[in-house]
Design a protein that fits this description.
The complex is a heterodimer of chains A (169) and B (411). Chain A is mainly α and 169 residues long. Chain A contains five helices and two strands; from the N terminus they run H-E-H-H-E-H-H. Chains A and B meet through helix 1, helix 2 and helix 3 of A and helix 5, helix 6, helix 14, helix 15 and helix 17 of B.
Chain lengths: 169, 411
């Protein structure tokens, strides 16, 4: 075990000029403590390794996330429609939602489906792409009552399709 | 008046820890997925941070030893250095995430481009930390963070079911499936961890010395630690309640800071949205300052170098270079476009892993009669300290496995 330094009392303005007369106990840290910390850390590389195929559970998780984002878009549109948001907030928020959906699309793009979920994979991918495109449109245009009503309708349809796919998984 | 304003150290410390970027979203996610069922984790975390924050302040005042001086003396050079490197890495990535968070909030307020705002935010913080005295930094961020009260007003306006709230004060043990049980564990550990983030005690104990506290201020130390933490905790509860009332019934799992802010202002008008944005800005900004300064405090205290925010730059060159360097590096990391929430998730969970190595030395010194004299821990405090240390250690051991199996809390 490394020996502890007898550090002096440290106070702003007087660093190291007061040698400590306090003798603190040296604590022997058992080897098992190091191992207890290292073991979980060693688990990380396995969890971060590249997974080329998307399992049923992963697909369900992406679908759930996309459904949540669709519901959130609908709630945000209502909020904007009631005149309770600022323009900057609304535009920024829809842009962030679009970016979040883009991440789900990237997950689809960077992986391939496991054979048992191939059809659901393709359908979900299409639905998520539609959601992203809708959000991009919302975030890039002036939001008024008619835009909101039309956007809400389309978002609801996409959400319904995603829920249908998710239920079949 | 000065004494009352001293409480802002506790408020800024607690808000910067409890309501930083990650914790705002993390708590909202817990509320959106589990309703009020994780309130107990906030209560335990609050009790633990009050206990340890008070100990840190007392040790700093009585033994003239801030946290990293204690860690080095207790753990020895090698293990102490490991804790220093790990703590400062966490400070750096948390600071980078907070800078990105500031840019997000300012973007939502002004619509200006986010990338430029990262640089502008870093420069603004640099100027603020450089120009303001320590006391004014804590007053600015501590008091403006109180705007987060808008979340509590929203929660009350939505008429929570108080029976359900009360039932959340006890851990929930029955789950419909195994995955939900693991997610529940992950969020419990994450909430507990975030309330005890190391930079809070680094900042608090250094702040006590920055403010020249003496043993006469020990009563105030307890008040500052308790009041700040309880206030931060109540706002965290409000955040969870808002998520439970707005997002949970709609089946929305928030993954964005803007969603949480919107939920916080949901039942109220446009003014509430602006207040929620400004409150979040203050908390996230406060956390960025806390982590920046903590990094410099840790380094200087460990290597016994001159430090102090209120001292002239020429007298504390290493300290000044450290916090400025920390801010610049954090700005570079944030500018790369890495997701701030991913950064904070990592910092919360890895922060948990090294937490026992921060809190054990504090407990050890605070309970040492030779060092603390008549200000030594009472038997009750030491017992509670040991209980919380056991909980911290259990959480530390389970943190990374839970992060792995839940894919960082993905439902």
């Amino acid at each position: 075990m490394a020996s502890g330094a007898n550090t002096a009392a440290v106070k702003p303005g007087t660093p190291g000029n007061k040698p400590s007369n306090i003798s603190l106990h040296q604590i022997a840290v058992p080897r098992c403590l190091y191992i207890a910390y290292l073991l979980p850390l060693l688990m990380l590389p396995t969890s971060c390794s590249h997974r080329p195929s998307i399992s049923r559970e992963e697909l369900r998780s992406i679908a759930r996330s996309s459904i949540s984002l669709a519901k959130e878009t609908e709630m945000s549109l209502d909020y904007v429609a009631q005149g309770r948001s600022t323009r900057s907030f609304a535009n920024g928020h829809f842009r962030y939602l679009a970016k979040e959906v883009e991440q789900n699309i990237r997950q689809f793009r960077e992986s391939r489906p496991s054979p048992d979920v191939e059809q659901d994979f393709r359908t979900s991918q299409e639905n998520v792409k539609e959601l992203a495109s809708e959000l991009t449109t919302i975030s890039s245009q002036t939001i008024d009552a008619s835009t909101i009503a039309a956007a809400k309708q389309r978002i609801r349809e996409i959400q319904g399709a995603l829920e249908k796919t998710s239920a079949s998984l | 008046m000065k004494k009352y304003l001293g409480v802002t150290l506790g408020i800024m410390t607690a808000l910067g820890g409890f309501l930083d970027l990650g914790q705002i979203v993390f708590t909202a996610q817990a509320g959106a997925y589990f309703g009020y069922q994780l309130l107990w984790a906030i209560v335990i975390g609050t009790a633990a941070i009050i206990l340890y924050m008070e100990m840190c302040g007392r040790v700093a005042v009585v033994a003239h030893k801030p946290v990293f001086s204690v860690i080095r003396t207790c753990l020895g050079y090698r293990l102490g250095l490991f804790v220093l490197i790990a703590s400062n890495l966490l400070n750096l990535i948390t600071c980078a995430a907070e800078l990105a968070g500031i840019a997000i909030v300012v973007h939502l307020i002004t619509g200006l481009p986010e990338k430029s705002l990262i640089v502008i935010s870093a420069l603004a913080l640099l100027a603020m930390v450089q120009l303001l005295r320590f006391q004014w930094i804590e007053r600015l961020f501590g008091l403006s963070g109180l705007l987060m009260i808008v979340f509590a007003v929203s929660a009350l306006a939505l008429h929570p079911n108080w029976n359900q709230v009360a039932s959340g004060l006890l851990p929930h043990l029955a789950f419909s499936n195994h995955k939900d049980g693991l997610l529940y564990g992950y969020f419990a550990v994450g909430i507990f961890s975030a309330m005890l983030m190391e930079y809070e005690v680094h900042f608090y104990s250094s702040g006590a010395l920055e403010e020249d506290w003496t043993t006469k201020d020990l009563k105030e130390n307890f008040m500052v630690a308790s009041f700040g933490s309880i206030l931060g905790s109540l706002l965290t509860v409000a955040l969870m309640a808002v998520a439970a009332l707005v997002l949970y019934p709609r089946g929305i799992f928030p993954e964005l800071l803007s969603t949480t802010i919107l939920a916080g202002a949901f039942p109220l008008g446009k003014d509430a949205l602006i207040l929620a944005l400004l409150g979040s800005l203050a908390c996230v900004g406060g956390a960025a300052v806390e982590t920046t300064l903590s990094g410099a405090y840790n380094l200087c205290q460990f290597f016994n170098l001159a430090w102090g925010k209120n001292r002239p730059i020429k007298k504390v060159p290493a300290f000044t270079a450290s916090w400025m360097g920390m801010l610049v590096l954090a700005c570079v990391i944030a500018f790369t476009g890495v997701s701030p929430l991913d950064l904070v998730n990592v910092s919360i969970i890895f922060g948990m892993v090294i937490m026992p190595l921060t809190y054990y030395p504090i407990l050890r010194v605070a309970a040492d009669q030779k060092i603390m004299g008549k200000h030594v821990n009472s038997r009750f405090l030491t017992t509670m300290g040991v209980v919380f240390l056991v909980l911290i250690t259990i959480a530390a051991v389970t943190a990374i496995p839970l992060m792995v199996v839940t894919h960082s809390g993905k439902p």
